Known about the structure:
Blueprint lengths: L2 H17 L7 H22 L5 H26 L11 H6 L7 E3 L2 E3 L3 H19 L7 H21 L2 H20 L5 H24 L12 H17 L10 H8 L3 H4 L10 H34 L3 H20 L13 H14 L1 H8 L1
Antiparallel strand pairs: 1-2
Amino acid sequence: MAPGVTGKLLAACALWAGVTVLAVREWQAAAPKLFGVLLGLALVNAIAAEPLSVRRIRVFWLGLAIAATGLIALSALFLTEWPQRKLLPLDNLYLALPAGPRVVDHGGRTGGIGPNQIGGALALLTPLGLALTLDRFGSGRRVRALAAVVLVLALGVLLVTQSRSAYVGALVGMALVGWWRLRQCTWPLSRRRVAEVALAVALAGLLAATVFTWLAPLDSTTDTLTGRIEIWTASVILIGNHLYTGVGPGQFPLAMDRSFPELGASVAPHIPHAHNFVLQALLDLGLPGTVFLSFVIAAAVRGLIATMRRAADRSLQLLAVGLTGSLLAFFVYGLTDTIAPGARGGLPFWLVLGLALACGRLPQRGRTAQ
């Protein structure tokens, strides 16, 4: 897909986001989310509009894998509202963590940032960090060491979030990076096959253990598969009633309380989003806006695949694999949880999407130059 077409799709998505305000009933909740969507689309366009040099793309890579990941992980230690009695016995650890200001409003109450949002952002960024850590083709030893330190910190915070959706997403995304890097090794074929099988078995075991917890009863119904199904069913009904405009940015909790008040008793008093990226996009952006955004994402993935196949620079190939793993991790996470398109935690997604579009243009530029 040509850059000009991608730009038109981004513009169409932004214009349709303006149409969705026709469904807004509460502007105090809608304004930040609408601004977040428009800002995200503008960032994607700014990064991908002009051809970037390889050097600038690498700067973006370092910025996301080290600076952004480290900032999110460190901020989470002070601003996250940690879960209690969920999967792991971490209550004593939560008491030892620094208690920062609780300034984020959750449906009329003051609280910290949701751990699932932190988990989703870190699941998105950890494959990119792993790719940089393994980049012996174009990154120096000190850069790789720093990336490794930040990656370990991010994985530690991700573990503490106890977000199963983020666990699964991060595992799948990092497994893609690890598998590609194994295939680039100069090991004998038999040794490489053993390593690939070991990676697959470890991944399958971790995924099975994580997914199994969905069947276990927890204190909060919203954290079980049954609770998710109730939310998804109600979301599909809302989409059918507001197919073109959605319910409006930031309006999901209000629309859910208005149309399905019984969920407050059976699932949770406050349901912030649809716990699925596609459903949330349809509710926030409507069907046309979601279609426009889907084509932009498809263009990014297509370009990344071309870079993985045709780029002569193995470092850029690894970057493309890392970006693909990041998007895969985010959308796997988005099967059972989500960060709304206009939410603050969605900023890394827009940055990764913009870098993916820019990276995907490199093979086309190389063929043109030849």
